[in-house]
Records
---
Amino acid sequence: MPAFEFRQAAILPARPRPIVSIGLGGIVHDAHYPAYRLAGFDVVGGFDINGERAAMMADKFDIPRLYGSLSEAIQGAPADAVFDIAVPGGAIADILREIPAGRAALIQKPMGEDLAEARGILDICRERELLAAINFQLRFAPFVIAARDMIEQGLLGELYDVEFRVQCNTPWHLWPFLFPLPRCEILYHSIHYVDLIRSFCGNPQSVYARTISHPSAPDLRGGARSMIIMDYGENPRVNVMTNHSHAYGGEKHQSYVKFEGSNGAIQIRAGLNMNYPDGVPDRFEYILPGEGGAPGWQTLDIKGSWFPEAFIGTMASLMRYADGETASLPTSVEDAILTMATVEAAYASSQQGGTPLPQV
Ligand SMILES: NC(=O)c1ccc[n+]([C@@H]2O[C@H](COP(=O)([O-])OP(=O)(O)OC[C@H]3O[C@@H](n4cnc5c(N)ncnc54)[C@H](O)[C@@H]3O)[C@@H](O)[C@H]2O)c1
């Protein structure tokens, strides 16, 4: 029996639009620009409030034009440019208010620091009729595209169980802006998994969660580890478990997403978390006992990874949507706010606490 073949790559736009960056920090360096190079997307200009940082990035990635201010960037951008906004969540709304009506913007997650800010961002996008999407790029990681193809073909049958588990040693010091924030782990990290799960399972009925700090990261006041149950009733059972402070070597590091159905299962190691941002190799394993294929778990060869290939997908999908090549914009602000609502429910649950033990 021939090996299964599944889609792994995002669909590219017929006519890529020029890109203007707002914010030229770590994620643009590590993932946005490497992805755009692979895809052949043109970055025509950029702006960062930190001039030195901007100059370094222009030098390294040959950005043809640096702007001295946000308004200069907006005035100077070609009319069909996509504004690629990659700044901390709290800075997004002020930037969007400056963008003229009808323009295209890809906005780094999270969509503001909480649901109230997300609503504000959605209102601005609606008022200005922006073509706006949140950069929930994990949905476009090659291993996720393959899993989605498999699941949409019905090969797993009914989806019973979805789990994202992370046990690693995350270099939080890369994001100094996170330390004073009241919300950290779920809002800035597990949000990827919450969003990914929503993209497969829809909105949960409710959320149970607990997010807490870690003794080794007491300055990270917004939490460094989380347990999230996304409640879909009897099926599927869904949870996200993260411990970013496993300090006992890479041997027991884990970072996987598992999809288990009535006819088969997929388990994917997302190696990025295990040595961020360089990662370790991913591993895509699946088992389809009813399909007459080879028995036992099989490995699917996947080309590309979360960093940087997934970042092609979010940008490509917005460019295609903006040019009318597709009617769907999977990570639109209209959809992303529901991920923010799920995250909000997780924080509310965490604050509320569990059921105390009854008297005995
Ligand atoms: N996989 C992912 O999707 C992923 C990974 C890492 C970070 N991020 C997100 O990207 C955003 C930026 O993270 P980072 O790691 O690049 O942080 P960073 O601190 O390295 O970079 C942020 C940059 O934005 C600039 N900046 C801040 N406010 C600005 C403004 N108003 N206008 C222009 N520039 C401004 C800063 O000077 C800095 O250079 C965060 O919201 C984070 O959640 C996403």
---
Amino acid sequence: MGQYLDSVPFSGIIRIRDMMYSVADPFRLDQGDVSFDAPETVKAAMRRAIDENRSHYLQTTGVPRLLELLTEKLRSQNRIPIGSPDEVMVTTGGIHALYITCQALLEPGDEVIVPDPEWPPCAGNVKAAHGVPVPCPLHERLGWRYDLDQLASCVTARTRAIYVNSPQNPTGGVLTRGDLERIAGLVERHNLWLLSDEAYEDVVFDGAAHVSPASLPGLYDRTVSVYTFSKTYAMTGLRLGYVAARDPKVRERMKKVLFYTASNVASIVQFGGIGALEGSQACVGEFRRELEARRDLFYGGVRRHAAGVLSGEPPKGAFYAFLRINPEWRPPALSDRSESKGPHSLSWAMAEHLISKGRIGCVPGADFGPAGEGYIRFCFARDRRELTGALESMGALFGAHVPASSSQQRS
Ligand SMILES: Cc1ncc(COP(=O)(O)O)c(C=O)c1O
């Protein structure tokens, strides 16, 4: 790729992470990491694998027992009509699955419709495969879902795929079965691929159900579904993801990229994945219930401590608060622009203010695409003490700066 890589953007989350290292005693609500630890079943399986010297090369697509367990899970939980474990391969996290999929699906110049706001590695991976990300807005007034006529109007003769991410990062929006059926119609009518990123499949609230697009009639043939152990089993640092696809040609290409970029996923980690799937699944429900309680704690705190400055409805899924910034808000310290480390925008000004004056990690909405400007993202998967500390710090910052009109809506 060489110089071409200079045109692939780096996520601003990296810049934020660097800023956070200069803050003493920070509240790390910037990165999408859970505060839980991986369940004992995962740790015990990895210990056993170490003791049994399972430290040698493995099959490229994954150890057979793990692929078998994933096939069962995809059939029973996701209702995807998987034929055999050959249709599944494990990857170094969901981000690697996305890289492999884009490399396998795209020709230079192929367009992929991506959400705006979006998780930056999505467009980044499309670009890295010489594709062209075409943003389609998600709308806050629709619970951060698409206007489906607008989505249809994004399809051109160059469109190769639609990337959907539900539950979504950064907005927490969850697409309904009806939404997915309309999207399936588009995919079939225009002979497209659906790239379904289901990283947050187990993080849905208020009794909402996650629907895997590949479970819809006929859609599995045109879908590549991406999953990860990161969020469901609090295994973010272990780097274990997987992907399911029926098309043998696409799978063969994916396998090549997998081989050339990893040879195989770390053996000990794969045995950890077996432990996660063979063990009790109680932790999945426990994590979800705790995340729902943290969501409510965080939104309650924002209403109290940032009234008139930040607002938004609690999301139906994922673990981010994507909050609207009152457009009248101005950062007291940033009248001195020399303090600014990021681009000049309301969301960057807010992020710099919260980080430098309140020690509160967050990500400016602008980093997730043009439609994200005017918003700010917090991760509420941190422990309750950290969330409460961040909220109190917010209260101290905003107490004296409540604008006169406190219910501004951004259209
Ligand atoms: C939308 C989305 N997809 C995929 C991932 C991949 O996660 P990982 O690479 O840790 O498996 C993430 C992680 O934050 C995400 O937010």
